[in-house]
Write a structure and sequence with these properties.
The structure is a single chain. By secondary structure, the protein is mainly alpha-helical. It has one domain. It has helices at 2-21, 23-50, 59-79, 86-91, 95-99, 105-111, 118-131, 140-163, 171-185, 196-201, 207-219, 223-252.
């Protein structure tokens, strides 16, 4: 396990160096995402100028939500950027080369890319969390844990989305659309969801576990909430690994869409 982690870190570091190689492109992508996030935050700021609360959520609560969301997606894009085009990589047949290597196929898929724009998310997220979320420095360990929890569940969900490529030819756009929709849903206070929509965000599109429950844990820590998050991590990671392994086994047998079906 230690060797797998070390190998992954080396591969991810190589991808980061590649994304940093063209400094002009890097600066443009990072700056563009930072500017985009700035406009998005400005809209929420203006909203709370007129409406002080929305369904029990105040400005600082939404700041925690958005700060967590941006930080999680930033880390995912920087250190695990291959998730974004995982379906395309599978459909193009590039997995063939990975099967000849002793290293983890999933690890190689996730570490093959680092998104320059994700640095904008990461930096913006940290600024929001430290400057506007109303968190105390004593909460830093819990905050780091919640970022880790949200990141793990988000990556598990996107791995499942990407693994659809083992079965569906059009999975490239579908996987991206599902990931983008998960990001969009994660940017809204949980109080706006009810009925079927609430069931969806705590199952098929787990925004409830990526950001909403971590926000609740930061605002009102409890053993029960922590237990729910631990169970969610275990379930989504197990599902992601199972779906990917089933798809990879199908690919090995030559039954996947890229292999002629």
């Amino acid at each position: 396990m230690d060797r797998l982690i070390v190998n992954y870190l080396h591969q991810a570091a190589a991808a980061m160096r590649t994304s940093l190689a063209d400094r002009t492109n890097f600066a443009l992508q990072m700056g563009g995402m930072t500017l985009n996030n700035g406009f998005f935050l400005l809209m929420w700021f203006l909203f709370f100028k007129g409406f002080h609360r929305i369904g029990g959520w105040g400005g600082s609560d939404v700041a925690v939500l958005l700060g967590l969301m941006m930080t999680i997606f930033g880390v995912a894009g920087v250190a695990f950027g291959g998730y974004r085009d995982m379906a395309a990589t599978i459909l193009s047949g590039e997995v063939d080369a990975l099967l000849t290597q002793p290293k983890s196929v999933l690890g190689r898929l996730l570490s093959r890319d680092s998104m320059a724009s994700a640095w904008g998310d990461f930096v913006t997220g940290l600024i929001v969390l430290t400057g506007f979320a109303g968190l105390r420095w004593s909460q830093a360990p819990l905050l780091a844990l919640m970022i880790g929890v949200g990141l793990t569940i988000y990556l598990a969900a996107t791995v499942m989305f990407g693994s659809l490529a083992f079965w569906v030819r059009g999975a490239r756009s579908l996987a991206r659309d599902l990931a983008d929709f998960l990001v969009m849903v994660s940017s809204y206070p949980g109080s706006i969801f009810s009925g079927p929509s609430r069931w969806i965000i705590f199952s098929l599109l787990p925004a409830g576990f990526v950001v909403l429950t971590p926000v609740r844990m930061l605002r009102a820590p409890s053993v029960e909430t922590l237990a729910v998050l631990a169970a969610a991590v275990a379930v989504y990671v197990a599902l992601a690994l199972s779906v990917f392994r089933l798809g990879l086994a199908r690919y090995r047998r030559g039954a996947s869409p890229v292999m002629g079906m």
